[in-house]
Design a protein that fits this description.
With 426 residues, the chain is α/β, with parallel strands linked by helices. The protein contains 13 helices and twelve strands. The strands form three sheets. The protein has a five-stranded parallel beta sheet, sandwiched between helices. The chain is flat, with a radius of gyration of 27 Å. It starts with 5 loop residues before the first strand and ends with a strand. About 6% of the residues have low confidence.
């Protein structure tokens, strides 16, 4: 039996095809290259590749149309979108139509692409084995059921006992399958967060504004200098502006870099790097400081109940992203315009865990929505630009990065409580 892995690359960019092909051929893959979607579909049908790498925007048949064909004809064949047009709507559309992952070009490190390929192939093997196991189990259940019905009336008690055992086994398997599906949904989003981290728009935007202001101030200062009209006060004003703009740029670009690194680490399930000892209360204050431009335009109060000098060895970037998403979620969903409210963040150390309660006293979450809070792409504000990724990212950071658990409780008119834990021994 031939166990060579086959890779199909569909991309109209010859440089991209050749570089990826050379890399994976050296890793033992048999690689097929196609320059358009039509040839790619025919090669998929004839060669039955192990994995497909496909561009989105190509002449003729688009990458999205290729995804539709692969999903219909080879639903268990993993397909990774490799595209240079990395906007969030493309990522959401590609995944919703059947792509297993989304990687943006240019690819600076092909080892990261190899990691993504290995992950989707492993996932495909798990799905295939699970299907085969389920089919075998169904056959076995059917066989045993026939045997039980063939027994005579003297064995009715044994039949009832065995049937009960089988029903219990099926229930356990169905529950395990449901958890597997949920886990796969979360894993699929892990591959997207590196490319669709829309939360970095705010620090990047602030940085651009600061740079633009600094450019204007420099031109005005230069004009005063050239016209020999510069006064000591002009120099002092320029220096103050430069210092403030530099501080804003450094703070926001550093924050953007931390967010990107945090998303990337979640997507490849890295539990090393970026971990350090922080003063938990002091770090929350820094997070609130970074959100001050958003908070100050509201009438809300944010209260922090956390012990002083609570030193924790953890991932500060993940904690920053979690609290930022929770606060922005409250500001967006919990209160009407011009309404005031209180947000309370309570932190306690309990054994090997840091226990965090986040509570707002807003309008609460409807009962029909509460069970979908952490689902990917679920939002009640899509018409206003919501993507439904914020709470899903929070779920992944808590459960995968911080080794904890998170749950949500809410009642209409009484606010919403998020309770999550951080494993400080992991």
């Amino acid at each position: 039996m031939d166990t060579t892995r086959k890779m199909l690359i569909i991309d109209d960019d010859s440089i991209v095809r050749e570089s990826i092909s050379d890399f994976f051929e050296d890793s033992g893959y048999e690689v097929f290259q196609c320059i358009n979607g039509r040839d790619g579909i025919e090669t998929m049908r004839s060669e039955d590749p192990t994995v497909i790498l496909c561009d989105l925007h190509m002449p003729g048949i688009s990458g999205l149309e290729v995804i539709d064909v692969v999903k219909e004809e080879r639903p268990e064949m993993p397909l990774i979108v490799v595209s240079g047009n990395g906007v969030i709507k493309d990522a959401i559309e590609a995944v919703s139509r059947g792509a297993w992952n989304y990687v943006m070009k240019p690819i600076y490190d092909l080892a990261e692409l190899e990691l993504s390929v290995d992950m989707v192939i492993e996932k495909a093997d798990l799905i295939r084995n699970n299907r085969l196991y389920k089919e075998g189990l169904e056959i076995e259940v059917e066989k045993r059921t026939r045997e039980l019905f063939d027994l005579n009336q003297d064995l009715e008690k044994r039949v009832a006992e065995r049937t009960s055992e089988l029903e219990s086994s099926i229930k356990v398997i169905k529950e395990a399958q449901a958890k597997l599906v949920q886990s796969e949904k979360m894993a699929a989003l892990g591959g997207l967060v590196a490319g669709v981290a829309h939360e970095i728009n705010t620090p990047v935007g602030v940085g651009i504004t600061a740079a633009s202001h600094m450019e204007t101030a420099t031109k005005e200062f230069e004009k005063l200098f050239e016209e020999a009209q510069m006064k000591r006060s002009d120099l002092q004003s320029f220096l103050a502006t430069s210092k403030e703009a530099s501080r804003i740029l450094l703070t926001n670009l550093t924050r953007a870099a931390q967010l990107i690194q945090g998303f990337k680490q979640v997507s490849v399930d890295q539990n090393t790097g970026g971990k350090r000892v922080i003063d938990f209360k002091e770090y929350i204050d820094k997070i609130l400081m970074s959100l001050h431009p958003k908070i100050k335009v509201t009438k809300h109060n944010i209260l922090v109940d956390c012990p002083d000098k609570l030193m924790v060895d953890t991932f500060p970037g993940a904690i920053s992203q979690i609290l930022t998403n929770l606060i922005m979620n409250s500001l967006t969903h919990a209160y009407d315009e011009d309404e005031d409210g209180d947000i309370i963040i309570k932190v306690r150390e309990t054994g090997k865990f840091i226990d965090v309660e986040y509570h707002d006293d807003g309008k609460g979450i409807d009962e029909q929505h509460i069970n979908h809070v952490f689902d990917p792409f679920f939002t009640t504000k899509r018409a206003s630009g919501g993507t439904g990724l914020g709470m899903n990212i929070v779920y992944n950071l808590v459960t995968q990065k911080l080794g904890g658990q998170i749950n949500c409780e809410s009642f209409l008119g009484k606010g919403t409580l998020f309770h999550f834990t951080i494993d400080i021994d992991q």
